[in-house]
Amino acid sequence: MGGTPTDPIARVAVFSTGTVRMHPEHVGPTRKPTPVWLLTSRRWTEPRPINVFVVEHRDGLVLFDTGQDPASVTDPDYFPGRANKLVNARMAKIHLDPSDTVEANLARLGYRIADVGTAVLSHLHPDHVGGLPVLRHANIVVSRSEWDTLQVPRPQMRGIYRSHIDMPGLTWKLITPEPLGDPDLAPFHEGYDLFDDGSVVLLSTPGHTPGSLSMLVRRTDRAPLLLVGDLTYDARLLAAGQPSGLCDKRVTRSVMEKVNALRYTWPDMAVLPAHDPGSASRLAAAVA
Ligand SMILES: [Zn+2]
């Protein structure tokens, strides 16, 4: 899309770094406890995207999430330890082609990896941090509360692998929500305004993980876009207030209620999850 001269957002695009097949119970809704479906489900969804969103702001190029690392399918020791390998194999079937890297996808959109100034991580799971090895020149933004989950005993039990995250040479920026004073964002009263102009605002949307962030992109005279990471795997389930099979359901329900309340201000807001097969076409319609 081309922004109007006054619109700080020049373009918003999405690409997928491979595909993931999940258990339908993982997408949800399900009444089964996570260990039950994780160990017993024999069903898998069709391949779903592992999305990375690209926001070209006049002050810099921003990624929201960084996708899956190709090494996760080529390096047998990417997930250290036999138990972790087994859990990951039960959790998801990942497929990546050589053309699925962040660099190759950016090149198809006309950007170089060096153009990326900031990468915001919705959370620290492997399918969202996979581009970090090629982003040592960029600022990496994550919520402080998500970063703090690295300190819990055995974070890999929560799908968080320090070796893929806390790598040498990365420039981290740990953010905490601040009062925004923007009534349009109610019932969100706090957030993090990335460019200090209200066009890209990070909102705290925990539930999938304790420190998960969403990114609200506001364009002049256009419906806003809400990139929600893994708050849901399907925008229709979020609209219905139905949590996925892998989250804190109580927290997720209350966050979904807040997100859905943003529609009082913006009935046309496009909700764009990381693994929703409908995200790419919904974005295409929103920027047409
Ligand atoms: Zn994910």
UniProtKB/TrEMBL annotation:
This is N-acyl homoserine lactonase family protein. It comes from the Bacteria. The keyword Zinc applies. InterPro entries: MBL_superfamily_lactonases, Metallo-B-lactamas, RibonucZ/Hydroxyglut_hydro. The keyword Magnesium does not apply. Keywords: Hydrolase, Metal-binding, Zinc. Pfam families: Lactamase_B. It comes from Phytoactinopolyspora halophila. Its cofactor is Zn(2+). One of its GO terms (molecular function) is hydrolase activity. Belongs to the metallo-beta-lactamase superfamily. Signal peptide: none annotated. SMART domains: Lactamase_B. Residues 49-275 form the Metallo-beta-lactamase domain.
